[in-house]
Amino acid sequence: METTEKIVEAYVRHVKRWATIPNIRCDAQQEIDLLAINPVTLERYHIETSVSGSQVYSKLTNKEFDPALLKLRVQKPKMRRTLGYFISHKFGTKAILDKLSEYGFKDGAYKKVVVTWDWTPDAKATADAQNIELWDFRMLMRDIATSIQHSRGYFTDDTLRTINLFMRALVDAETPPNTETSIPRRSKATCNGSREQDLAAPYWVYRNWIRGRARLHMANCSYCNNGSGTQGSLNSVTGEWKSFKSETEAKVFLDSFDYDDAKLCGACMTSRTRT
Known about the structure:
- The protein is an alpha/beta fold.
- The protein folds into 2 domains: about 5-145, Trna Endonuclease, Chain: A, domain 1 (3-Layer(aba) Sandwich); about 190-265, no CATH class.
- Helix content is about 30%, strand content about 20%.
- The protein has helices spanning about 5-15, 75-80, 85-90, 95-100, 120-130, 135-150, 160-175, 195-200, 245-255; strands at about 20-25, 30-35, 45-50, 110-115, 130-135, 205-210, 215-220, 240-245, 260-265.
């Protein structure tokens, strides 16, 4: 069972509180990643996980799927990152359908889910048309972290225990939010390309996906420092900075988050109001 599959099962069990059965072997050397049942509604889910750490293949695409290309080493990663691969090989084979039937999963009476690291708009549109749900792996990680971040108990689940320790380490290592640190700002002479354009941007939004928190800053804010923050880095494992040419664009981006804690910076934006 791959690490990402363990994380997805931990999310389903701990956050969703559903019952799960992982790694079900099928005929023809095929496998179902995860079956889940909501004990309250009795809704059933067939969940497949495909998370790529490669920048090139991180997004699920709607490119044409060709089964013959799965046999070519250089084409296999690209084919496995297409929605068509899941429709054909993970949800639609006879071996998979026969095994699902053994577990009481009848066609049209359960939901199909693909967990992935982002997707293209056309892949999302096709997935919706095929009644396939797409779950963002990054959001699953955030939700797990949020659900356990205040817990000091001992988790018997190795995956949850690891994430809990990781979360605590990140939070403990962060600079307290009210602590101002003097960070030398980067000069334009030391930057080029898109970073030069970023430095000219008057507004920035920082999002912390672990805490589910976002703030809109002016570039010269002591907490922003032209997207370097108080830590002197553009991005980190806990979040990222994004630049904007106008306050309106920045506010639209800020409002796009499903965060309870998404606000204007209390230090540099106090004279402005959300629209």
